[in-house]
Design brief:
mainly alpha; 206 residues; 70% helix
Length: 206
């Protein structure tokens, strides 16, 4: 079955950015760069305010707390990830659900080339740990969305046991992100892409 101009199927949720003042945009931009490059826990509000050229009062006026700023950082990173996937699909032009799945893996190579410290969501989940942190819903939703997209594409392709297939694809996808960062395996996205292609080729259909 050929699906012309195949695209992502699952709803992205609330991806619209909240309107910020110029100072708020500078704060979020500075915080995003610092959190990703240095780690969330090691970066204080003083460093963020200095980088954004604002006072700490302005930072708290705009975001309320560091924890809420962390949540805003991850929400913006999620928006960036989805914009990136849309661009990748436009460039790769997958024609079938199977090609969409493999395009999601192929996109990892380009994404990680610009994200040398690995997955910002995985990094944040390790640093934050507390399940009630304001940023945790965004982290969890980002990974759940990825699995749901694999399920939806697998169903459209006519595979059997789509939940199990999606679980395996997600483990390959997320495993590539962790291995790239922790084990310094720069070719992890390419290995995951080949493994996903083999998995799809062997998976039974309805």
């Amino acid at each position: 079955m050929v699906v012309r101009q195949a695209r992502l199927l699952m709803d992205r949720g609330e991806l619209e950015a909240k309107r910020l003042t110029p100072a708020g945009e500078r704060i979020l931009s500075a915080a995003s760069a610092l959190f990703y490059e240095r780690g969330i826990r090691t970066v204080g509000v003083d460093a963020i305010a200095d980088a954004a050229e604002v006072t700490k009062k302005t930072l708290y006026d705009r975001f309320g707390s560091k924890d809420k700023l962390i949540a805003a950082y991850l929400e913006e990173r999620n928006r960036s990830w989805h914009r990136f996937l849309d661009e990748q699909l436009d460039a790769r032009d997958p024609q079938t659900p199977e090609e969409v799945i493999l395009a999601l893996f192929a996109a990892l190579s380009d994404w990680m080339a610009e994200s040398r410290r690995g997955c910002g969501f995985i990094n944040a989940s390790v640093e934050l740990a507390a399940p009630d942190h304001p940023a945790m819903p965004t982290i969890v939703a980002q990974k759940q969305w990825m699995r749901a997209e694999f399920v939806a594409q697998a169903e459209l392709a006519g595979f059997r046991s789509t939940g199990e297939l999606a679980d395996r694809l997600l483990l390959l996808h997320e495993g590539a992100l962790v291995t790239y960062r922790v084990a310094a395996m720069e070719h992890a996205p390419e290995v995951a892409h080949r493994a996903a292609a083999d998995l799809l080729a062997a998976w039974p259909r309805v």
